Amino acid sequence: MIQANIGELEREISHRVIKLYSERIGKSPSQIICHFFETEIVISIENSVTQAEHTLIRGGYASLAEQVRLYLEKIIKPELKNLIEEIIGQPVLDLMTNTNLATGRTGIIVVFNQLPDVPNPKSIAKRNVKNLAD
Q: Which of 132, 125, 93 is nearest to 110 (CA)?
């Protein structure tokens, strides 16, 4: 069996996340960026806000639009977790999402225990840890 490399895993996650968003919230993102960082995956989604959410915001119901988005993310989060586990072959320890309704961007951070078993592990970006207190 041929193992997928990091780039292939990132592309597969991107394609499957686009499909999930399209099917579940009726909005296909315009762009998605997915990168592995050691034991984390960071996903950035452009243009992820639905027309209904935009309409609520323009109508003066921004807090309702935020509440709708929170429920949407809560509903699709288990499916998102499952598809990522299926692709990388490891359990997800934590999955965090946040959407900025003003910019239309969604950020997803996925944390798992260890690097996926890939033929090119050195291609995964390493963390650049700095003392943030300085």
A: 93
Strand, coil or helix: what is 55?
Answer: helix
| DSSP string computed for 63-109 | HHHHHHHHHHHHHHHHHHHHHHHHHHTS-EEEEEEEEETTTTEEEEE
Q: Answer for the pair 101, 69: CB distance below 8 angstroms, yes or no.
A: yes
Rounded to an integer, what distance in angstroms lies between the CA atom of residue 107 and that of residue 43? 6
Q: Is 23 exposed, middle or buried (0-12, 13-18, 19+ CB in 10 A)?
A: exposed
Radius of gyration of the chain (CA): 16
Helix (H, G, I), strand (E, B) or coil at 37: strand
Per residue in 63-100, pLDDT tens? Answer: 999 999 999 999 999 999 999 999 998 999 999 999 99
* Residue located via tokens 């890939």: 118
